[in-house]
């Protein structure tokens, strides 16, 4: 079956075609299913297929459209990250002992997607524990980048980004604590939005076999992924709103409008590299080209500012707070060994690697002091956003790298312009938005000379998610966006 004219359309475009009766929801679902069946043997993005229920949802959507109903996602084919509970489908987070865990109820976000008419065709692959920028595990195998099968699609939402790039539906759901929405979007040339912290409820996005109750999870968020910038807002608005079992008893969501509607009105700080973790020539060149385009379009571009919080200090703080949170689930023997290693660190070692080790051993007293430092950081960002509307900066230092499954990630290395750097130091760039909890929209900006996608993140003010999302839309309209991989020209 040949690629249809709808295979790589955005959700906004598909909604219009559905309303105009140019295509049916069943036809869209069948097209996406056909693509999965033809191509996913190579990509391995969709680890759990749910075609029968997906087609039933598509038929229901066609009937609803025929009755004149309008819902935000009505009839749109999509996937969801394996880590979201979907009733009747396994949720493993890549943990082999949990391969048979099947939740009986949908995550709140999944329920909202279904209520909005979304047609879920399957779940997408993840790394073990959602703890890598590569997406592989013993249950489902390795997911490959559709632009180069020998390279990572990113992680931990790597299956979702690969599915979008391969044309397996117009939307997907992901999550992010160390760049897990933005990094795979960057590596696969698609879009993603890390919302303001706690903007989206996380009930049902929990590691098995934990019950789907409301947990307080520091730094972690869920969010939308898509092939078009406007689609991010479409899906965000479906997912966002307080949990009715919790804050929703008293609070309602009312996000402020985007600060501007035209590129020429935006004040943008553009950062292309930093000595904490340099970016390579391809990434720098792409950012510089975008800055030049924005300047010519009339936006007010600055390339530095004393208002920008100290990147080295905030990166060290992020490493400590992130690993303090993650270490809570470490096996006792791993935790004890890390604590002993942290105690042996020289006092003057302030490398990012050392800070991660210290974070594992962080006492509650030290964590409270770290939260005070984070509060000061948030105040600095508030001050910056009085003078700027958005900060454009890197997501990762290099385009997608070859698969590397060395078990100890601290022993892995990436090459930046030929020089080796510690793999896990890549946390620094996603952390620029994660630590203060700021919204950040990942957008594609083209390709490196070797044909691999590159992109940037647009960091916005606290709870002003519509501002980076709007800027992403304007950039896409003015300069272009997603370009399908050539291997899917069928």
TrEMBL record:
Enzyme class: hydrolase
UniProt domain Amidase: residue ranges: 28-467
A Pfam family that the UniProt record links to this protein: Amidase
Keywords: Hydrolase
GO molecular function: amidase activity
EC number(s) from the headed UniProt entry: 3.5.1.4
InterPro entries (UniProt xref): Amidase_CS, Amidase_dom, AS_sf, FAAH2
Alphabetical list of Gene3D superfamilies matching this protein: Amidase signature (AS) domain
Entries under NCBIfam families matching the protein: PRK06170.1
Name by which UniProt lists this protein: Amidase
């Amino acid at each position: 079956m040949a690629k249809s004219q709808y295979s790589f359309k955005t959700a906004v475009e598909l909604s219009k075609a559905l309303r105009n009766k140019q295509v049916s929801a069943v036809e869209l679902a069948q097209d996406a299913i056909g693509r999965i069946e033809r191509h996913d043997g190579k990509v391995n993005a969709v680890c759990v297929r749910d075609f029968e229920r997906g087609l039933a949802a598509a038929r229901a959507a066609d009937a609803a459209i025929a009755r004149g109903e309008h819902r935000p996602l009505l009839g749109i084919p999509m996937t969801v990250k394996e880590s979201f509970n979907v009733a009747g489908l396994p949720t493993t987070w890549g943990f082999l002992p949990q391969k048979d865990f099947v939740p009986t109820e949908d995550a709140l976000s999944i329920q909202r997607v279904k209520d909005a008419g979304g047609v879920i065709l399957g779940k997408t692959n993840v790394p073990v524990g959602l703890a890598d920028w590569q997406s592989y595990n013993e249950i489902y195998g390795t997911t490959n980048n559709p632009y180069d099968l020998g390279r990572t699609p990113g992680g931990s939402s790597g299956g979702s980004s690969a599915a979008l790039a391969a044309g397996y539906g117009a939307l997907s759901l992901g999550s992010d604590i160390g760049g897990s929405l933005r990094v795979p979007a960057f590596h696969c040339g698609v879009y993603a939005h890390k919302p303001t912290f706690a903007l989206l409820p996380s009930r049902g996005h929990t590691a098995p076999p934990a019950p789907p109750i409301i947990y307080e999870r520091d730094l972690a968020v869920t969010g939308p992924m898509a092939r078009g910038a406007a689609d991010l807002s479409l899906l965000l608005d479906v997912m966002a709103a307080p949990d009715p079992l919790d804050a929703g008893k008293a609070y309602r969501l009312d996000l402020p409008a985007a600060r501007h509607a035209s590129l020429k009105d935006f004040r943008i700080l553009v950062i292309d590299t930093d000595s904490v973790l340099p970016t390579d020539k391809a990434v720098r060149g792409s950012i510089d080209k975008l800055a030049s385009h924005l300047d010519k379009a009339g936006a007010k571009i600055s390339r530095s500012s004393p208002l920008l919080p100290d990147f080295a200090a905030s990166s060290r703080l992020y490493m400590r707070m992130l690993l303090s949170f993650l270490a809570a689930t470490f096996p006792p023997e791993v935790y004890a060994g890390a604590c002993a290693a942290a105690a042996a660190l020289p006092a003057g070692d302030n490398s990012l690697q050392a800070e991660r080790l210290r974070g594992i051993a962080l006492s509650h007293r030290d964590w409270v002091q770290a939260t005070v430092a984070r509060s000061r950081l948030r105040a600095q960002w508030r001050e910056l956003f009085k003078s700027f509307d958005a900060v454009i900066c890197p997501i990762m230092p290099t385009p997608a790298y070859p698969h590397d499954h060395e078990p100890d990630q601290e022993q892995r290395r990436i090459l930046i312009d030929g020089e080796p750097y510690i793999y896990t130091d890549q946390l620094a760039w996603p952390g620029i938005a994660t630590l203060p909890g700021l919204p950040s929209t990942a957008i594609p900006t083209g390709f490196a000379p070797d044909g691999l996608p590159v992109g940037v993140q647009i960091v916005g003010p606290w709870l002003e998610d519509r501002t980076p999302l709007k800027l992403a839309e304007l950039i896409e309209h003015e300069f272009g966006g997603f370009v399908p991989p050539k291997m899917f020209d069928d």
